[in-house]
Amino acid sequence: MDVSGSLNCVVVAVDGSEVSMEALRWALDNLKLSSSSSDSSFVVLHVQPSPSVAAGVSPGTIPFGGPSGLEVPAFTAAIEQHQKRITDTILEHANQICAEKSVNVKTQVVIGDPKYKICEAVENLHADLLVMGSRAYGRIKRYQSLLPL
């Protein structure tokens, strides 16, 4: 069943990896949006890790000891700025790919755990299709990832 041409919203999740950028190229080359709707769009979605995930600590706490309830705003702000620079670079690369293909896209950034936030974004955007790259783990690597540590 060919649905290309009847799609109103296609979300392409990118994380900066070459695999995700190849998925974006594939979507732009192979999918056609509905021409009957002016709201049709490709949405490039990036999920930025929360500062606590990026730092490996709870947000704002001192990573090297001290009272656990003590917040260090400068530490959190530095992590957030670093994450924003990474996100900006990823979206710049994605937008460059879209410009090369002469396709206008919308971009969206959400913060949190990708496995939940991608699903939420797809639902909120009422997307017809989600495109993601695959790291193509072999059978052994997939099996190892299922084993408890």
TrEMBL record:
Pfam families according to UniProt: Usp
CDD domains referenced in this protein's UniProt entry, alphabetically: USP_At3g01520-like (cd23659)
InterPro entries on file: Rossmann-like_a/b/a_fold, Universal_stress_UspA, UspA
Alphabetized SUPFAM superfamilies for the sequence: Adenine nucleotide alpha hydrolases-like (SSF52402)
Segments forming domain UspA: 10-142
Protein name according to UniProt: UspA domain-containing protein
Organism: Arabidopsis arenosa (Sand rock-cress)
